[in-house]
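Hi support team,

I've been running sequence recovery on a batch of backbones for a student project. Most finish fine, but this one hangs at about 90% for roughly twenty minutes before it completes. I'm not sure whether the input is malformed or the queue is just slow. I've pasted the structure tokens below so you can try to reproduce it. Let me know if you need the job ID as well.

Thanks,
M.K.
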């Protein structure tokens, strides 16, 4: 019999095939036990946060809302994943005791637990008592995909009256999201009520026919371009047949696309083609230099000098402290060099975020008398600006301080320290990307960094990161109070506290 407890010192090379299969089963079971422990631990952390939320309400800590932040930072996973783990923990505890026990014992893994949670959420208690044991039994014989099919079929049979209830529940889960993948591509997907989805599909099909038959694009390519044309305001596809007046679609008026709704940071020498450093597409990450130059053809530019921190621009002194805002040029520069939210692990684009005035740092410099420089400010998304504001008011046990020009340090409630750096600057000024590995044999001359332009626009997409360690991509939380955990799902206040007053 294979020793389940000692997999680390096993010499797989000496094993029989049967032994290897046995080892695989044992290892998978132990991974499931570990997954269950993660779920139970983060769920308990959430329970404690909820119990401690002293001042719930719009200006206080919403009950338990930052438990996911703390877990996400500790594990270096995204908050949506941490929130989904909490949600699964709650569902197991509330209504799925048998599944909880099987998971704890490693008899089923997280992927199958997710299927069971997904398919039992709107099921009546009496039905669940019949359905849950059958699902667990099926989980032992099927992979997660087959288990999902069986679960749907049985839920529909056992609870036909629940069809409408489930449909209504599913409609609440409608969402459109974007996920960065390799090679400057992203997956755009969503969950829509069928009539709405069909409306989008038929419109894309109609637009795909707006070009002549000689247009070289395939139908899938046309549909993809049509979706972008819907968003950029041009509203229709321009024919690519290049036949000029001989094209039957020649002369059909097309509205000018709106200025791109995207923001790209690109070093000046790369823009000019002297270097090929990666550029930064806000909300996505690195894109290659050639693509960045292509996008830049229609861009509006802002020049971000590498180090203007020394050239401080005083905040308008006549402004009341309560209405204090950084000068626009300073605000643009901070957004460009920070690139994205400065909370550990958060990837919300700077243009979608707020500027936080770094109070602790300001207090170390009482001599400056109300003037604000670049390093007093940091980009934070709405969710993490809430976290920091609450922490500054000592309503939350997080602490932040500015370690130097570049580094912002976060002390988690447990005392763990996490550091974030100015990601945007890594792209704009490649010389500052000192963590990047150096290519072994290029004698390539690196041009001195010069003023780096960025194109600036708001980005309004929603993005989730797929975490391959957790089979939770697209998981939709059951518990309403967990729905705002992803930074991109935070609804900004109508009157955001965009900046704190310096020295408040
Ligand atoms: Zn044509
Ligand atoms: Zn954030």
């Amino acid at each position: 019999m294979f020793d389940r407890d000692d997999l680390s010192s096993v010499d797989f090379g000496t094993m029989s095939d049967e032994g290897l299969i046995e080892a695989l089963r044992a290892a998978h079971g132990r991974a499931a036990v570990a997954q269950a422990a993660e779920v139970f631990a983060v769920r308990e952390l959430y329970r404690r946060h909820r119990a401690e939320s002293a001042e719930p309400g719009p200006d206080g800590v919403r009950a338990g809302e930052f438990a996911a932040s703390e877990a996400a930072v500790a594990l270096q996973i995204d908050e949506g994943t941490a929130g989904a783990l909490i949600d699964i923990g709650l569902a197991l505890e509330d209504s799925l005791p048998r599944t909880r026990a099987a998971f704890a014992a490693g008899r089923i893994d997280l992927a199958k637990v997710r299927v069971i949670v997904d398919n039992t959420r709107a099921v009546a208690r009496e039905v669940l008592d019949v359905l849950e044991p059958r699902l667990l039994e099926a989980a032992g014989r099927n992979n997660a995909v087959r288990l999902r099919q069986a679960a749907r079929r049985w839920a529909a049979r056992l609870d036909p009256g629940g069809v409408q209830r489930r449909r209504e529940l599913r409609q609440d889960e409608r969402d459109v999201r974007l996920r960065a993948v390799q090679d400057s591509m992203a997956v755009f997907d969503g969950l829509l009520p069928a009539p709405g989805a069909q409306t989008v599909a038929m419109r894309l099909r109609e637009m795909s026919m707006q070009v002549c038959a000689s247009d070289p694009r395939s139908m899938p390519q046309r549909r993809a371009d049509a979706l972008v044309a819907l968003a950029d305001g041009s509203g229709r596809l321009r024919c690519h047949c290049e036949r000029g007046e001989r094209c039957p679609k020649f002369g059909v008026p097309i509205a000018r696309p709106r200025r791109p709704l995207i923001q790209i940071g690109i070093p000046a020498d790369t823009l000019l083609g002297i270097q090929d450093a990666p550029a930064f597409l806000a909300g996505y990450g690195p894109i290659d230099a050639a693509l960045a130059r292509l996008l830049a053809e229609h861009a509006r530019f802002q020049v971000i000098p590498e180090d203007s921190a020394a050239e401080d621009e005083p905040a308008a002194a006549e402004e009341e402290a309560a209405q204090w805002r950084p000068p626009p040029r300073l605000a643009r520069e901070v957004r460009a060099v920070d690139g994205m939210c400065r909370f550990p692990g958060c990837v919300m684009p700077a243009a979608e975020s707020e500027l936080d005035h770094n109070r602790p740092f300001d207090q170390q410099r009482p001599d400056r008398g109300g003037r604000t420089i670049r390093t007093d400010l940091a980009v934070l998304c709405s969710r993490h600006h809430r976290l920091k504001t609450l922490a500054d008011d000592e309503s939350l046990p997080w602490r932040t301080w500015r370690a130097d020009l570049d580094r912002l340090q976060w002390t988690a409630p447990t005392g763990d320290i996490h550091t974030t750096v100015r990601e945007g600057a890594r792209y704009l000024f490649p010389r500052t990307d000192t963590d990047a590995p150096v290519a072994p044999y290029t004698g390539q001359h690196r041009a001195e960094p010069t003023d780096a332009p960025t194109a600036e626009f708001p980005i309004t997409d929603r993005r989730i990161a797929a975490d391959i360690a957790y089979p939770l991509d697209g998981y939709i939380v059951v518990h309403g109070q967990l729905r705002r955990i992803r930074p991109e799902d935070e609804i900004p206040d109508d009157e955001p506290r965009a900046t704190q007053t310096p020295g408040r």
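--
Follow-up from support: It reproduced on our side and the slowdown came from queue contention, not your input. The chain has a mean pLDDT of 81. No action needed from you.
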